[in-house]
Amino acid sequence: MKIAQNTKTKRISKILGASSLLVVLGLSATACGMVESFGRQTADAWSVTYEVSVTGGTVNGIDDVKYLEAPTRGEVSSETAVGEVATTNDPAKKRSATWQETVMVTAEEEAGVSAAPRVGATATCRVLLDGVKEIAAVTGEPGKPVECAVSTPAFAKK
Fold first, then answer.
1. Rounded-to-integer distance, Cα 113 and Cα 100, Å
2. Structure pTM?
């Protein structure tokens, strides 16, 4: 009987040891996930304004509009396709109109916008940090699509 009881004790010890190991591994994985999630939630991110202006030709809208944005803070940029959008006429300039969209882009990730002007129009795209600082600008050929793409800068270290 002592042999059978000793074997049972060893089995129970092995089961408890394996269970404890699994619990420790599970807690470690959870903690790592929490740290990674916290890192993403506190990552530096820019307010990026995309601007596409059109001049000449048909300026009441632009087509095939796509831009990059971070789904949430700390995430890699992903493409948002909005297709056709209306533009806002510029009262100071005849036959000139603009479309803008402000999104979040994680620091050091890609920012970009592309669009196609309508018949006879020329499109210019710009990428602005915090709605002010221009970090990319491109003017296309009349009637041809335009694309601006740039990596956002890192935040200054304090």
1. 10
2. 0.74
